[in-house]
Design a protein that fits this description.
alpha/beta
Length: 251
């Protein structure tokens, strides 16, 4: 059985005090959840204080990005060792905003994925199509391309440590949401890609999250789909009661 994972991507929001308060509130309300893992990914400058707030609590810490080199002249970047040093267990890679706003390539996502796995950090690999790609009937092709690139060189032993997040770009921050049937179709396709590349047993161990405007009001229906194993939550992750509301819909 795959445990649900509800992951909060805080993006470029909060400051030190509000971030610590949010993490604390989430941890305080997370005590009675069953079969659900919780994760928060604050801005990198607040990873350390949020880690302190979560010490001993049932909420994991993740980062929003990292670089694929160990160290060196890479101004503004973070290494896997740095994330390990502050206690980050997960890292979001290839988020649509990094791909389409900041120009991150499939090859860079792959390098980061391999480096995270090498360092013992679970990568949350994001894939997803833009509106014009969906309307052109290219959803499956786009997700296959991003999937195949990201998993190049990932061994069968490493795969269960990877989380995939399906992000329909047209449904991020827009208020639009893929229907449960649309989400399940893509999640099932991604599970099949894992099966084709590895095998069914390995594919059955990988958690695939939905990442497009999930809220407490629509979470239960989305999470009831057989291949939807949780959510990568944006706006709703910035309010503890909404984030926990999604988690309760899972558990």
């Amino acid at each position: 059985m795959r445990r649900y994972l509800i992951a909060g991507n805080w993006k470029m929001n909060t400051d030190r005090s509000t971030g610590v308060a949010l993490a604390t509130a989430i941890a305080e309300q997370a005590t009675d959840l069953k079969d659900v893992d919780l994760l928060v990914c604050p801005p990198s400058v607040y990873l350390a204080p949020v880690a302190q707030a979560l010490a001993g609590k049932a909420v994991a810490l993740g980062a929003q990005n990292m670089y694929f080199e160990d160290n060196g002249a890479f101004t503004g970047e973070l290494s896997a060792a740095m994330l390990n040093d502050v206690g980050a267990e997960y890292v979001i890679l290839g988020h649509s905003e990094r791909r389409h706003v900041l120009g991150e390539t499939d090859q860079e996502v792959n390098k980061k994925t391999l480096k995270a796995l090498e360092a013992g950090i679970a990568p949350i690999v994001c894939v997803g199509e833009k509106l014009e790609e969906r309307e052109a009937g290219e959803t499956a092709a786009v997700n296959r391309r991003q999937f195949e690139a990201a998993f190049e060189g990932v061994t069968p032993e490493q795969v269960p440590s990877v989380v995939i997040a399906y992000e329909p770009v047209w449904a991020i921050g827009t208020g639009k949401v893929a229907t449960p049937e649309q989400a399940e179709e893509v999640h099932a396709d991604l599970r099949q890609l894992l099966t084709d590349r590895y095998n069914a047993e390995i594919a059955g161990q990988v958690r695939i999250l939905y990442g497009g405007s999930m809220k407490p009001g629509n979470a239960a229906e989305l999470l009831s789909q057989p291949n939807v194993d949780g959510g990568l939550i944006g706006g709703a992750a910035l309010k503890a009661e909404d984030f926990i509301g999604i988690a309760k819909a899972a558990g």
